[in-house]
From TrEMBL:
InterPro entries: 3Fe4S_ferredoxin, 4Fe4S_Fe-S-bd, Fe-S_cluster_ET. Its cofactor is [3Fe-4S] cluster. It comes from Mycobacterium rhizamassiliense. This is Ferredoxin. Keywords: 3Fe-4S, Electron transport, Iron, Iron-sulfur, Metal-binding, Transport.
Length: 64
């Protein structure tokens, strides 16, 4: 199981993460990323990785 962390100082609200991986990420009122579950289940691991790889600001990190 992985843990996911979003650096709020880097997130500028492109929305790629919650568009591509809605099981793991959501948006707050201004479009910045909210992590739905910090501990990523095996089923959501692929979505978490997709979000991590597609964030232009490199705000998302996954730890194992
Ligand atoms: S893709 Fe990155 S910058 Fe964009 S909302 Fe998600 S975490 Fe923030």
């Amino acid at each position: 199981m992985s843990r996911i962390v979003v650096d709020a100082d880097r997130c500028v609200g492109h929305g790629r993460c919650y568009t591509l991986a809605p099981d793991v990420f959501d948006a707050d009122d201004v479009g910045h990323c909210v992590v739905l579950t910090e501990e990523v289940s095996d089923e959501s691991e692929l979505q978490a990785k997709i979000g991590e790889q597609n964030c232009p600001e490199q705000a998302i990190s996954l730890t194992h």
